[in-house]
Amino acid sequence: MSLKNMTAFITGASRGIGKAIALKLAKEGANIVIAAKSVEENPKLGGTIFSAAKEIEDAGGKALAVQCDIRFEEQIQAAIDKAVARFGGIDIVINNASAISISLTPTEQTEPKRFDLMHDINVRGTFFVTKTCIPHLKRSANAHILTLSPPINLDPKWLAGHVAYTVTKFSMSMMAIGWAAELKQYRIASNALWPRTTIDTAAVRNLLGGEVLAKMSRTTDILADSAFYILNKPSADCTGNCFIDEDVMAKEGITDLSHYSVVPGANLYRDLYVD
Predict the structure, then answer these.
(1) How far, in Å, are 53, 93, 125, 161, 246 from residue 22 at the CA level?
(2) Radius of gyration of the chain, Cα coordinates, nearest whole angstrom
(3) Which CA distances in Å does 96 have to 109, 111, 133, 161, 218?
(4) Which residues, other chains included, contact 40 with Cβ-Cβ below 8 Å and sequence gap of 6+?
(5) Assessment of whether the complete model's pTM goes beyond 0.90
(6) Between 3.40.50.1220, 3.40.50.720, 3.40.640.10, 2.40.50.140, what CATH number should domain 7-260 receive?
(7) Which of 36, 142, 273, 275 has the fewest CB within 10 Å, making it most exposed?
(8) 165 is a catalytic site residue
């Protein structure tokens, strides 16, 4: 399959994993819709929808920057309408936008506003972005939904320390599996993707482990490359999976992943939800 002239609607694509996937798909000829909130740069996070669009265009791709807070369905609808008006349709949805609490808090330390934020973005936002895109995906020759969420691992250790966050990420994966079955008749693929190791993102650097954890992580490129391989598959054949990036690469015959390490030869830190 080819991604040339396909249109990808990517949430949270102004930085990090979303931007890395956007750049990879753009280099393969896809049109990119950057749907994110950031229009002014936060020094701690970096990047805006406009800076991401410029990087894509500088790399030879086509980009549309659309400010969109996926907590609000009217903003979702407006962003998708702009994408369709610009590129004529939507072939790929990347549910990348996600909120994490300031720390992975146990129940007593989880404030209502943090609980609501994680559910509004991770669960509600993901659901309504996908719902709004489905009519356009039905018209695509090779439609894919890819959600950045983990395999559902009910080992209590993954719930005990941060019930609220884990419930939202598992909900994203359950939706991905559900859409695979619901939309199979339309040849719309739905899969989830998650890293085996931590990834060097602003969330890791600012919220979870700082520079120490970042140096024990891989770059966002491994998820971008994994997403590319998944999206290149025929949608009728590749659906209903909760992929781990290493496994995707292995199926492509790629087993040397050393070049993805932030620090060559470093001991890598295993991500959440992966035993």
Answers:
(1) 9, 11, 19, 33, 20
(2) 17
(3) 26, 24, 15, 23, 17
(4) 48
(5) yes
(6) 3.40.50.720
(7) 275
(8) yes
Q: What is the pLDDT along the chain (275 residues), one digit of tens a residue?
A: 799 999 999 999 999 999 999 999 999 999 999 999 989 888 777 789 999 999 999 988 999 999 999 999 999 999 999 999 999 999 999 999 999 855 689 999 999 999 999 999 999 999 999 999 999 999 999 999 999 999 999 999 999 999 999 999 999 999 999 999 999 999 999 999 999 999 998 877 776 667 889 999 999 999 999 999 999 999 999 999 999 999 999 999 999 999 999 999 999 999 999 99
Integer angstrom CA distances of residue 39 from 14, 82, 106, 245, 265: 9, 17, 33, 30, 37
**How far is 251 from 263, CA to CA, in rounded Å?**
25
Closest CA to 130 of 170, 82, 86, 180: 180
